[in-house]
Please model this.
Amino acid sequence: MSAFRELSTSDGADLAELKTNMNVDYVISYHIPPDKAEAEAGFIQLIEALTRVGLASEVRHGNDSSVLVFVKVASNQYLASQIYRERLQDWLYGVRASAPEKDVTKAFENEPVTEAERLRLVYLLITKPKNDGGAGITPKSGQWKQVASIFPLHDHSFNSSWIKTWSTKYFLDEVDLDNIRNKFGESVAFYFAFLQSYFAFQFAPAAFGFAAWLILGRYSALYAFANSLWSVVFFEWWKKKEVDLAVQWGVRNVSRIQHPRTRFQWDHEAKDPVTGELVKYYPPMKRFKTQLLQIPFAIACVLVLGALYIFCFGVEIFLTEVYDGPFKSYLTFTPTIILSSILPVLSAVLTKFADILTERENYQTSDAHLAGLVRKIFVINFITSYTPLFLSAFVYMPFGNLMMPYLSIFTATAKRFYPDKSMTTQEFRINPDRLKGQMVYFAVTAQIVNVALEFVVPYLKRVAFKKVESVQAKRAASQDGEIIYDAPEERKFLQRVRDEAKLEVYDVAVDYREMVVQFGYLTLFSSIWPLTPLSFLINNWFELRSDAMKIAMGSQRPIPWRSDSIGPWLNALGFLSWAGSLISSAIVFLFGGESEGPGGDPSNVHVVGLLVTILFAEHLYLGTQFVVRYALGQMDSPGLQKERKERFAMRKQLLEETLGQDAMEAAVPPTPKTGEKITLVALEEEARRLSTSSGSGTPEQMFWLRQQGMDETIAIGRKLISQSKPRNNGKSTIQATFETVEEAVVDELLSSILSLRD
Amino acid sequence: MSAFRELSTSDGADLAELKTNMNVDYVISYHIPPDKAEAEAGFIQLIEALTRVGLASEVRHGNDSSVLVFVKVASNQYLASQIYRERLQDWLYGVRASAPEKDVTKAFENEPVTEAERLRLVYLLITKPKNDGGAGITPKSGQWKQVASIFPLHDHSFNSSWIKTWSTKYFLDEVDLDNIRNKFGESVAFYFAFLQSYFAFQFAPAAFGFAAWLILGRYSALYAFANSLWSVVFFEWWKKKEVDLAVQWGVRNVSRIQHPRTRFQWDHEAKDPVTGELVKYYPPMKRFKTQLLQIPFAIACVLVLGALYIFCFGVEIFLTEVYDGPFKSYLTFTPTIILSSILPVLSAVLTKFADILTERENYQTSDAHLAGLVRKIFVINFITSYTPLFLSAFVYMPFGNLMMPYLSIFTATAKRFYPDKSMTTQEFRINPDRLKGQMVYFAVTAQIVNVALEFVVPYLKRVAFKKVESVQAKRAASQDGEIIYDAPEERKFLQRVRDEAKLEVYDVAVDYREMVVQFGYLTLFSSIWPLTPLSFLINNWFELRSDAMKIAMGSQRPIPWRSDSIGPWLNALGFLSWAGSLISSAIVFLFGGESEGPGGDPSNVHVVGLLVTILFAEHLYLGTQFVVRYALGQMDSPGLQKERKERFAMRKQLLEETLGQDAMEAAVPPTPKTGEKITLVALEEEARRLSTSSGSGTPEQMFWLRQQGMDETIAIGRKLISQSKPRNNGKSTIQATFETVEEAVVDELLSSILSLRD
Model:
């Protein structure tokens, strides 16, 4: 925990062992299996594979069952050629507007290699397949199953200044995001950019939410409309912003360059119709059939989680609203205990299932795999997050009274346990504040708990593991009487690396998921409690910082991948924004007005009104979305402008290069005189040829010889014009008159209408 | 009418005057205004402007108030440079995958200039602004308002063989479409491709429509579902096909190359942030404000046309179902007469209004202008086409009985006209066959009338105008005693050109509109009469041929514009497909079942059921669309494959060119030995440098000097491994045990579930 502790103190960055990474690019944690011969053979293969691609390696003791291999680039030429090749590929795929300089040295002078670029390419060098110029090391799979992890080392002085800066400023600016991008790659930078935009945008709903809370009260239609409009504007705006950022970061279209998934299993090899090479092929229809399993999967999620929720819900209702026997104050926690013990397990099982299903779908590229996984994770999260509110709003409140007879099961059960005592029950009454109470829980309590967990749990976990480990190490040492010593000048550095090796791999999807779920609460249910956006706003200020700390201290430094958007989460946001129009309109209709809800009796619900409201709200939403999308599409943005500028410059340059100076001049139209000359020369020659060969030409030739040159054409034309007797516009009188009248009437009418506007 | 007559006979193509176009590229019809001095000055300017861009011209007598200027390319070099430049531009905009050959002569040998390409570029030469290398002639506007039209001449031998081929074959193939593309450009070819695809796709609904008619009867939910599914599949398929065709025709992304609109009016000149040049600027917000006028425009359309329809509807109901007095059989036609006399006028006024509104929106490019106009035209057509059926289905049938009291207005009016006679009225009864009758009218009668009109009206019009003109010409000749004679060998050719000058300009939007409206009947209302698709299928066979004849004989030859899709009509199709899910589900719910409709009484309508049906149908539609889009997206297509192939070849070539043979070889990773050598050399040198300079290096240098070379790393690694005491996977025992159990349980569970599938 030295890194954590020292980072927490303000002068942590001055400590020597934090200042240097010993020029290490990557650390490979190599796990030692019980069979030591196997371990040694694998280790030799590893070092050889690394050396083969121009990487230098040093090995140090890791822990009792692992060694740490430190890797840095030895052959800078080879890395440079890889980077140059990558930049060229970027250009060919349309990621860059212009090709890199042909002179390699100059190319690197003009565009120096950033840390993220270097780390990304070294990582690719280690992991790319051999036939693609890499070492082909794939952690935890196949031949390399002993390679536990490959990670770069944190830049602790950057991290501590990063956290310090962010903790003391209210708003992040572009420089902050650029720093993240340079250190952790565009993939992580996009998350922070999204979160920052989302945070900034939330000031609007926080303000009108607060106003609505003061003036309009709960379940306000106006608030729901404003909130839905906000979600549309934010979503459409972000889609634009995303493109903009991608252009500014030079990663637009980078998703076109797909990294093959190492675990892809092919059906057979087939000739690629495009490249002509043999490629691994998996029939898409076979995949599509597997994908159809998502439907039963979603249904299973709904049933399993729904059943759990309904059970807990029933218990809760019974205990809080009906039961009035002994231990009531303790028993009230029963459903919470059931839920918080079973839900994580169920979630884990379902997530694992989602994992396996996605694995079975066998995507060819990492991006497609991620998208497939995110779809399923989103379904699970949608159900676990929103079911309690769904049940309260659309089951408990309208049908509560009908549930009474079923609650007698619980009464009977309870009576069986306490047959002797006469158990008292109170009369069941719908609790109209239940919905609001739940919403407050999700908007405030859960968020606070969550932020706390993000700090505390990893901390405790690491402390505990460290304790266990040091005890085990001591015991092992006392048994064998032998301790491996590090060189004294490296000890602290190695200790830090060992700490980092134990950290979790940072997965940006986890953070996206959290924000997307929050966005869902906002769009779907925030009309229940209009202070929700304000609460989220405050939470997100901390969220931004706590996520930064999670990366800086709680995780291994992420591989700086590139990406050109927030990826599959965009669809999830769009879906929630749309679903918000349905759910929030239904809630406002059901609970708006004096009575605040149907009070447990479905006959209080005006079904036609409800359906009309939903239909209307949804189509209003779709219409608004169309207009907002169009209006935003009309606006220019710095990123797109930059892109156009680059493309224009590139086009101009290429045109000049290809056409050459001569062609550029020849493109100026011939002046009248030269034009005339061409015509005359051509015609005179043709006339000569005609007279010498046959005496008279073809009709085509004769046709074009009647008027030799411009002057004759003009002369004849003038004669024809002077002979003509023009009438009204060349049309017959009746027709012309009709058209004139018609046009005059229409014009008159229209201009008078349009003038009303000015 | 000579061309028409001769084309109709089978040997028309053999006639001499049809065989040659005298090498003419374009004919300019120059109108002579009453002021002859002005006419002559304008004419001189015209000829000079043409000559300046390397075009030769001949002038001939047109009619009494016009002369015809024949234009052909004199300076082939200049045209070639323009074509080459255009091809280069195509490449730079990503329309072509590869750049044209650098050697110009070779470039034209490899890709000869097609007729469409030549004509398009000559037209651009005539109309492009002067600073862009053109003559800047803009027909009917500004300086060139006397230029009535610029048109190419029909290739009559092609036309007659075209019509002959199409009349004798059932299906069009790719060669047919390619021919159209080469003659009339991609813009027209896309229309025929769309119509042909639509026609081919209609076999499916025609077949199950026929089956539904036999077995299921009217208002079948199954038919409505199948029909809606069909519309989704067709729409999504066409979006794919469109891209495919664009790739095959080499026009993909051609919409990126925008032609500036000549009538664009700028607010002020501003510096273009992209090119740095001064450009004409019109603030988009100002345009957006004008665009908002579309909303009152749409409302006005609904009100004006709605009022007309409701009035006629009332009259019709009264006359057919209530009135039983004298002249009933004649009076029945009253509403038809009112409608068919007022509707065209109203439509014309609204279309004119749409025109003016679009003009006011002041778009910068022709494409944006067209899209804006099409949106409005679509609104007008939507209302004029579908209102009668809307009124019958959703007003007459459910609310018919409530309308009775209002019909007494007509009774009173009628009684005022015939106070003496005792007017008999029959009792009002809802006519359940009304809806079907209307649908049959729209699906059969109207289509037949339409095809007939497309042939007969233009024919009659031209015959009449020609009569009037020849009478006028004779009268003029007898007054002045002077007739202009053509040279005898040119007479027939000139007569043909004069005929073509009188023809209308072909507007592909008119044909698209017709098909889109038909598609709307299919998706919205065809469940009323399941034979509708069959009827449309038959109609479209003729439509394809009649449209071909319209181009070949009824219109001037179109300018062969390029395009990469059916443009704004795609959105209209998507909208109708979606609206179909709402309307047809409502119709099926209202009229399905035994009673066939609510019989005029709204209390027969189960409103909740109706709303639930609509909501369900719409979301089923959206879900299906999502799945179909995804599934189609997985499929490869020859066009996309071709594109990828070209891009791959281009990339490979460019990579080889840029990196050179050396770099390609250097990209092979260094072999173990060379890799080792680099490492060793680098390290030895470093060691030497260190020992000579300071005696001991920095910690970083020392870190990497501990293991000199691969062999030492391996040796130390093996030592470390042999010393280690590995435990379960490097994790603490408790944790490892827990994880193993958890994983085993989950894996067991999942594999047993998944194995059920196989």
